[in-house]
Amino acid sequence: SQKIEQNSEALNIQEGKTATLTCNYTNYSPAYLQWYRQDPGRGPVFLLLIRENEKEKRKERLKVTFDTTLKQSLFHITASQPADSATYLCALGGDSSYKLIFGSGTRLLVRP
Amino acid sequence: GAGVSQSPRYKVAKRGQDVALRCDPISGHVSLFWYQQALGQGPEFLTYFQNEAQLDKSGLPSDRFFAERPEGSVSTLKIQRTQQEDSAVYLCASSFWRDEQYFGPGTRLTVT
Fold first, then answer.
1. For residue range A17-48, what is the model confidence (pLDDT) as tens digits?
2. Is B34 helix (H, G, I), strand (E, B) or coil?
3. Could you tell me which chain A residue has the CA closest to the CA of B42?
4. CA nearest B88: which of B22, B25, B43?
5. Distance in angstroms (rounded) separating the CA atoms of residues A13 and A109
6. CA B28 to chain CA centroid, nearest Å
7. Nearest to B42 among A46, A98, A103 (CB)
């Protein structure tokens, strides 16, 4: 069955450093991958979408890579700030399906 | 403009009671999704509407779960004869088509 793995342990980094979160998947060939941010008590908020034919996408301090050979996406936040502390979810989607399959998320803590 | 809204935000039900959860999507969004999110997990797909048509209900856990979107806008998720395992956050999301999804704040259901 399809499986998505994200670091289950929280990532704890110092303000100003780059945070790198990993999303690995198996038994799936997604047409695109999305990253969402979720704060406690709130719904997920869309951050970035990257398609299978794209290697990298950037938005301000965010960068996402997508390696369909390794079946992996990396999500980077540069110059991290305490306000970036949240849970980050990756989600996979296919062209023939409107469904998103979510990972369990990685909690990021940025220390001031 | 207004985002996705959900009501109630919190619901406590006694085991065996029926509950109805409401979702108001962003105006003009064709697609509407319901997800279930357990503590510490990512959202899990329940069902999908394209306008008023329910195209996929494969994620509904049992026949006690029922969703509708009669006029292609507001949607209701109904759970009959609630059980303790139904306790979770229920998220609604809408999108224009098959792209980024906009989530509501969720309804936290607790079954006692």
1. 999 999 999 988 888 999 999 999 999 999 99
2. strand
3. A104
4. B43
5. 6
6. 18
7. A103
Any CB–CB contact under 8 A between A9 and chain B?
no
B34-75 tens-digit pLDDT: 999 999 999 999 999 999 999 999 999 999 999 999 999 999
Helices and strands of chain A, counted as H and E runs: 0, 11
Separation of alpha carbons B74 and B103, rounded Å: 14
Q: Between chain A and chain B, how many beta carbons pairs sit less than 8 Å apart? A: 54
Question: By CB neighbour count within 10 A (0-12 exposed, 13-18 middle, 19+ buried), where does A100 fall?
Answer: buried
Q: Which amino acid is at B99?
A: D
Contacts of B98 in chain A (CB under 8 A): 93, 98
